[in-house]
Amino acid sequence: MKIIFDAVSTMTSKNQTTIPESVRKALGLEKQDKIRFSVLGGGQVLLEKKQY
């Protein structure tokens, strides 16, 4: 998989994180959108905007 760019986010004490603005823009994410997290081998995570 080719990496277009990297972004970093910190997990809070409540196990929450903010998706960086650059990622939100790249995926076209808006408020109330659903996001799919797919855990891949080697500790990688795929994040996708859920399509309806």
What does this structure look like?
This protein has one domain: Pemi-like Protein 1, Chain: D (Ribbon). It is built from one helix and two strands; from the N terminus they run H-E-E. With 52 residues, it is an alpha+beta fold. It is globular and about 30 Å long. A two-stranded antiparallel ribbon has the order 1-2. A hairpin with a 5-residue loop joins strand 1 and strand 2.
Mean pLDDT, all residues: 93
What is the helix content?
10-25%
Strand arrangement, largest sheet?
Answer: 1-2
Number of helix segments?
Answer: 1
**Structure class:** alpha+beta
Number of domains: 1
**Which architecture per CATH?**
Ribbon
Topology diagram in text:
Elements: H1 21-27, E1 35-39, E2 45-49
Antiparallel strand pairs: 1-2
InterPro entries: PrlF_antitoxin, SpoVT-AbrB_dom, SpoVT-AbrB_sf
Protein name: SpoVT-AbrB domain-containing protein
Domain SpoVT-AbrB: 9-52
Question: What's the quick description here?
Answer:
The chain has 52 residues and is of the alpha+beta class.
What labels would you give this structure?
single chain; about 50 residues; alpha+beta; Pemi-like Protein 1, Chain: D; two-stranded antiparallel sheet; globular
